Each structure stands twice: as structure tokens, then as C-alpha cells.
Amino acid sequence: MNWAMRQNKNQDAIQFSRELVEILKNSNQVEKVILPSMGTIHSVAEVTKETNIKVGAQNIAPIEHGEMSGEYSIESLIDIKGEFVEIGHWERRLIFGETEELINKKLLLTLNNNLTPILCVGEKEKTDDLEEVLSEIERQLYNNLYQVKSEELENIVIAYTPYWTVGQTYASNYPHVHEVVKGIRSRLNKYFNSSDIEKLRIIYGGSVSPENTKLIIDNEDIDGVLVGRFGSEPSRYAEIVKIIESNK
Ligand SMILES: O=C[C@H](O)COP(=O)(O)O
């Protein structure tokens, strides 16, 4: 669950996390990760430590430490026992101008520190041309996964997050999601071993809600969802987790 920068006060973040821990205390079949707003990440990690909810950062600097004013270091994330790093979200690519090369550096740094990158990729414009969509995603993956070893794929999560579905009322239609996710695995065959590609986790993000989760995840190639605004209540997020649990 990505909070983006919607919930920024520590007390709110603590209350949200406590409620979530309580609601989901018996949920052990689905991996759950909160990506809090960066200013509250420490507080959330305190609440979720030794629970079944994991914490990650929405971004990290491309180097561990040094001259990088205003950035968040992976060292700080490791210090609070964070396990995931979201990399290449559209907001990072478009607002902050992150290049494919920079995204690749962050991804390699994350893997080298034994944390799990959640790499966001996807097409910008809505189109029915599957070939165009997959070519764009292949271009992103080719650059973002540069120098990644085949056996490292099992430590990576790819979030298929088409830009035109982020912050909207509706998610992408589910047949499109399923075709793209299948296509991603197939395109990666050019670069990686098929047995390693099977271990790669691919999730979908973009206006995911309790109402559309079942249709989105009802496919063998998709491993989960990246929840944004529509999981902004603990009970709604828990609903999504339960739908996934009963579907897998
Ligand atoms: O990281 C999540 C994506 O930004 C999707 O957000 P959204 O579900 O609010 O559209």
C-alpha cells in the first residue's frame, strides 16, 4: 500500500498502522507492505515491528551515503528494518525527472543491500495496441534491470502501473492487465531464464479498490496489487487483503 504523500502526521500514521495490525493480526497467507509517507516511515515501522505487516520506502537515494542533500538513504531504511523500496513510480519519473539510468542504480543498490525493489513500469497513454504497450514496458525493463542477474529476479517485484490509471476513478480493465502481465513474462524471456521469470512477482497498481481486486487478481500470472487511495482506510485495505487471501 502506497500512501504517497497523503498521510503525513505521525499521530495519524500511528493510529492507522495500529488499526491495521489489529484487523490483520490473523492474516498470514498474503504478504502485506506499507509504503508510508517518508516523514512517518519511522513511526509506522515502530508500530509494525514484529507483526505480519512489512514496511518499505517510496524512494531512496541512488547511493548509500554522502553528498545527496534532501534524499532518503537506504541505510536509514535498513536501520528501521524496512524491507522494500518502491522505485520508478510515475510521480518520480514525471515530477522529479528520474531517468531509466537513475532507476537502474536505485534498483541495483536495493538488491545489493538484500532489500526487495518494487519496480513500477507501464505505459503512459491509454491504448488498445498491446504491442505498443509491451514494447514500452520492455524498453523500461531493459534499462531498469540492466546488470540484474537472472537468479535475482525472485527478489524483485514488478508493479505494472499504467500512468493513465493512477489517481483515476477506475482501474484498467482486467483483461488488459492480464494480457500485459503475461506479455511482460514473455518479453523477459529474451534476457532471463524462464525458471527465474516464474519466480518474479508481478503486481498491478492504479485505482485498485475492494470492488475491483477480485477481477484483477483472478489470473495465474498476477501475484498481487499495489494499493493507493482506495486503501486509505484500514478496513478497506483489510478487505483487499481478504479478497486476495480467498482467491489464492
Ligand atoms: O502506488 C500506487 C499508485 O500510485 C496508484 O495509486 P491509486 O490507487 O491511488 O491510483
How would you sum up this structure, described in words?
The protein is α/β, with parallel strands linked by helices. It has one domain: Alpha-Beta Barrel (TIM Barrel). It has helices spanning 10-23, 41-48, 74-79, 90-94, 100-112, 130-144, 174-188, 194-199, 213-217, 234-247; strands at 32-34, 53-57, 84-87, 116-121, 157-160, 201-205, 224-226. The chain has a seven-stranded parallel beta sheet with strand order 1-2-3-4-5-6-7. The model has no long low-confidence stretch (mean pLDDT 96). The protein binds glyceraldehyde-3-phosphate. Glyceraldehyde-3-phosphate binds at residues 2, 89, 161, 166-167, 205-208, 226, 228-230.
Number of strands: 7
The CATH class is Alpha Beta
Counting helices, strands and paired strands, the structural category is: alpha/beta
Shape: globular
Q: How do the strands of the widest beta sheet line up side by side?
A: 1-2-3-4-5-6-7
Within the CATH hierarchy, at the fold level, what is the topology?
A: TIM Barrel
- Which ligands does the model contain, each kind named once? glyceraldehyde-3-phosphate
Identify the CATH architecture. Answer: Alpha-Beta Barrel
- What is the N-to-C succession of helices and strands? HEHEHEHHEHEHHEHEH
Residue-averaged pLDDT: 96
Query: What ranges have pLDDT less than 50 throughout 5 or more consecutive residues?
Result: none
Protein name: Triosephosphate isomerase
Keywords: Cytoplasm, Gluconeogenesis, Glycolysis, Isomerase
GO molecular function, one term: triose-phosphate isomerase activity
Family: Belongs to the triosephosphate isomerase family.
